[in-house]
Amino acid sequence: MAIFKTKPTSIRETRATPRRGILLVDDEPDILDAIAESLSDRYRVETATCGEEGLDLLARLGASEIQAIIADQRMPGMSGVEFLDRARCLYPEVGRIVLTGYTDFQAAVQSINQCKASAFLLKPFDRGDLLNTIEKVLHEADLRNQAVRNLTLKGIAGSRMRAFLQSHATITDSDATVLIQGETGTGKELVARALHDNSHRAGKPFVAIHCAALPETLFEAELFGHRQGAFTGAHRDRKGRVNQARGGTLFIDEVGEIPPSVQGKLLRFFQSGEYQRVGCDMVGHADVRIVAATHRNLREMVEEGSFRQDLYYRLNVLVLSVPALRERLGDLQELVEMFLMKYSKGAKTLSRQALMVLHGYDYPGNVRQLEHCIQRACALCQIGEIGPHHLSPEILEHFGRHQPLDDGAYRFEELTNAELKAARALVSKHAVEKLERTFLKQLMARFDSIVAAARHAGMARAYLHRLLTKHQLRPPKPSSERSTEQARASSRSINPTK
Ligand SMILES: Nc1ncnc2c1ncn2[C@@H]1O[C@H](COP(=O)(O)OP(=O)(O)OP(=O)(O)O)[C@@H](O)[C@H]1O
Questions:
Q1: Are 195 and 249 in contact (CB under 8 A)?
Q2: Ligand 1 atom nearest to CA at 156
Q3: For 161-204, what is each residue's pLDDT tens digit?
Q4: Of 244, 248, 322, 445, which is the most buried if we count CB atoms within 10 A?
Q5: CA 95 – ligand 1 centroid, Å
Q6: Domain Sigma-54 factor interaction spans what residues (predicted)?
Q7: Is the pTM of this model over 0.80?
Q8: What is the whole-number distance in angstroms between the Cα of residue 319 and the centre of ligand 1?
Q9: Is 185 in the pocket of ligand 1 (CB under 6 A)?
Q10: Is 159-229+238-323 the same fold as 20-148?
Q11: Distance 84 CA to ligand 1 centre (A)
Q12: DSSP of 444-460, one letter per residue?
């Protein structure tokens, strides 16, 4: 397929920064060579023919050698956008361009909105387009990296989460409205605080209003304030959150819950900075940056008619989508360490098995759920390490239902009855059967007599027999029988014709 439109180039060629590194990834060798050649007089070009190879190369060379990546969207295995997204986790500071045909245009636009790619180029393009896009992406990356160097992310655990914020570093200091999307408990408020702490408003107030917690009747008064006597219970004048946030940031959490009766007034405030306290004719003015958050799909709410379209457009300026915890389980260990420090002052540690159980869960309540689980475990665990039995019942239950115990993922280093009893308490009823079977199989493999196995496990022989019968497992064969069988088998294999 032709990659360049025509012969180069009507576009003014700019002088590039001396020899910066570009990583090119395309599964078609001819195209790879053509692009590499067209760039080689300006950049150091590295090439890879698939995403996996590109990631290896990037990990080896690092961001000091590679400043921008260009990847074709259509590649077998990992797509271009997938590759760029994984490259972003490794080195968020590197600029990322996706090459796309017209049919994948939507995917390319979406990748930009989700910050997986920094720019896209529609095929066929000419050399001028390519050079301009590279220079633009490199320039933006320089600005972002400058912002990243100045970014403080205190209290935020998890390299994936920090990379997410770093990839949005340039918007922290803007006054534009930000809409943070994400499931409940993913850390949206933490992101809002990070935006505020890294803006020129950092010395001014950060004021949050949690819309889901407010009754409709009090909403307007809470947001804009009220005069004494404005309604029953308004015993004195009160400033609203907008007023408290003057010069700083107003964080509107669960913005989708704002009652329709207040949405119009909020829109007016967004557009002009003007508002009126309840029961007061005077118009106030406040300069605040708006950061809103929601776990709901506002676009769908607009279609249903429960959210004003004009307010939606006003909010939908810069959109950050915070990934769910199950999509970034690589952050889990660091989060656990942070919460152990918070709730036990670092006195408690987590056992390997407990960490494995935590890794197997999907966290519908995200980081908040994990935090509560560790807080509870710290309270329950009096001595020693936190084990699986200190974790929340729903996490253990899930582990019991989904973890294949037979595949050796869950090992019992000490094959004793006491260990079996302890393990029984850890997992749900549903998993006990699997657990017993695993226990018995490992025990049978280790001992060649039921007497020795029962003695080691600290259980009565009759009980071990009953367990074996229940699971339809055969008792171990004495070693003399085993060796006779082995001898028979080997003689058969020496002379297969017999
Ligand atoms: N990356 C993180 N590092 C440390 N703590 C975190 C992180 N993400 C979330 N938390 C903690 O998890 C809890 C929930 O976070 P937060 O309130 O910001 O979530 P949210 O998405 O705003 O939730 P909701 O949608 O319910 O309002 C908080 O205690 C917060 O401190």
A1: yes
A2: 3
A3: 988 888 787 788 788 899 999 999 999 999 999 999 998 999 99
A4: 322
A5: 29
A6: 161-379
A7: no
A8: 18
A9: yes
A10: yes
A11: 27
A12: HHH-SSHHHHHHHHTS-
